[in-house]
Every structure is written in C-alpha cells, then in structure tokens.
Amino acid sequence: MIQQATRSLLIIAFTCLWATVFAQNADSVRTDSIKIDTNLLNRYRIEPRRNALPVRVRPLQVQEEQVPVSMLDYKVNYWRKWVVIGLNLNQSAFSNNWASGGVSSLALGGNFDYKTEYSKAPFDYTGELLAQYGMVANKGQVARKTNDRLFIDNKIASQLSKSWFIFGSVTIETQFGNGYQYVDGAGAALAKPLLISEFMAPGYVTESFGIEYKPNTSFDLRIGTGTARQTILRNDTLYKNIAANYGLAPGKTFKNELAFQVVAVYDKDIMPNLHLNTRYQGFIPYGRGMINIDHRLDATLIAKVNRLINVNVTGTALFDNDQSKKIQATEGLALGVIYKFP
C-alpha cells in the first residue's frame, strides 16, 4: 500500500517536472518568433515598398474658358511705292587769258523715277514714270540738250504658276523739248540748227499682250505675241528736215503697226553700293523683214558714295530703221545727288 502510494507520487512529480520543462521550451520558441517578427517590421519601416500606401487619384476635369482678347488694328498693305530723284551738275570756268585754252561751261541734268507695285495673288500690277532731262551751255553757244526722255509703263498680270504670268501692258514714250541737229552728215556745223523732233513728235504708244516670266524681283521677261504700236507725229512738217520722217509718209501724223515684242528688265544691286539697271526692248513688225526690227538697250550703273552722293554712268543704244540706217548711241558720266524714298 505504501509502495503504491510512493509510486503514484513519483509519477505525479515526474509529470510536473516534464510539464515545466516543456513550458519553458514553448516560451523560448514564442520569444524567438516575436524577435523575428520585430526584425521584419523594423526592416519594412526602414525600407518601405514603393507605393505601399494607396493614393486616391482624382479624375482630371478640363473646362473651356473664353478669354477676351483685344483685336489689333493690323492691315496688310499690298502696295509698294518709291521715288528716286537725282540731280547732276558739272561746271567749268576759264579766264579770258588762260594760256592752255578752254571754254567755260555749265551742265545740269536731272531725273525723276516713280514706281509703284501691287501684288496680291493672283493679281499683279506695275506702274512706272521715268523723266530725264539735261542741258549744257558753253560760252558763246546756245544751250543744248544732253538728255531728254519721258517714259510711262503700265502692266497688269495674272499668275499662271510660280514664275509665269499672262500680262497686258501699255507703254508711252516721247520727249519734253525740241530737238535740233547742229551738224550735217559730213560733220560740218550748220548755219542754223534744224528742228528734228519735239514733244510727241515722235511719240510712241505700245499695247502688248502675252506671257511674262518673272522668277524673282530682279528679272522680268515679257513676250508679247500680240503687240500694236502707234507712231504719232504731232508736227507734220518735220519731213522737210529729216528724210526718214520716223517711218511716216510726208504730211502724215499717225501710223499703226502689229508686231511681236520682247522686253527684258534686270534691276539689282550687283555689289554693295553698286546698282545696275538694264532694259532691252525688241520690236519685230509682222511682214516687214528683219531689217525693220527695232532694238533699244538702256543701261544705268549707279555707284553710291554715301546716302546722297553718287556717281552714275548711263548709256543707250538704239537701232530704228525708220529713224536712221545706223545705230544711234548716247553715253553720260555724272557726279551728283540722288535721294530715294521711302
């Protein structure tokens, strides 16, 4: 009985001891797992994942707003206008006892050039008025002309492509004052100057229709397949002094011709302060032969010294079988003042 009770006590004691050991092992395992969780939490606190926290995104709303804007008073001007005025003066004087000899003289020349352009596709208009006049007076002689020309050109065109136009033009050309002949055919001085030309005697009015080639603002080529020219001779007595009488029969004052016409214009600054302007006109009458083709070439070279002072060289070569059987030519060199505006 005593032995059985002792055995039961031993079993109970051993059971309690084993339970105590097991409890200690369980607590230590729990402690280790808590430490691991703490390390993980600490790591997440130090290096949180990107976009770990949810962000609420609000939808973007765009609304139309009317912003008041004051209208600017801008207007496109399709017109271009400019005026060139030039004045040339040449003077020399000698005393009566100047041993080397010489003649006192005074030469004065002026030119006025007005040009206007209108360009709004497909329409194009160009108008030009050119007036030139010059006189020279030598001591002991009457004043004589050195230059005299009045030229008016009006052209309208409609654009066909980038560089080609269909055009119509009207041109008027004459002179201002009376023109005289001072020497005969052999070069001998005449006792009395002969009147050979005057205002609208002759005068030329030319209407032309055709195709125009204009690749840029410097070059212009007109091909007038349908051209008519009227020669006007206001003074019907000039045939007494000039045999050719400008192609008109004696006593007649008007002649009309149909022809093919070519006009080429080149106008450009070829170098700094150096400007070249040339104009060629070829007039080919229908049914009159090659000898009656009229050619005229005008060239002006202007060298600018400063804004006002310039040196200019002008030249004209002309062949018109109705005026002379030979080529006519004129040339001039002058230092003067030129003003261009705007």
Protein described:
It is a single chain. The chain is mostly beta strands and 342 residues long. It folds into two domains: 1-40; 79-341, Beta Barrel (Porin). 13% of the residues lie in helices and 52% in strands. The protein contains one helix and 14 strands; from the N terminus they run H-E-E-E-E-E-E-E-E-E-E-E-E-E-E. It has one helix spanning 2-46, and strands at 79-92, 105-120, 123-138, 144-159, 164-174, 179-183, 189-197, 203-213, 219-232, 254-271, 274-285, 294-304, 309-319, 328-341. The longest helix has 45 residues, at 2-46. Residues 1-23 form the signal peptide. This is DUF3078 family protein. Keywords: Signal.
Short note summarizing the structure:
The protein is mostly beta strands and 342 residues long. It contains one helix and 14 strands. It has a twelve-stranded antiparallel barrel. Strands 6-7 form a two-stranded antiparallel ribbon.
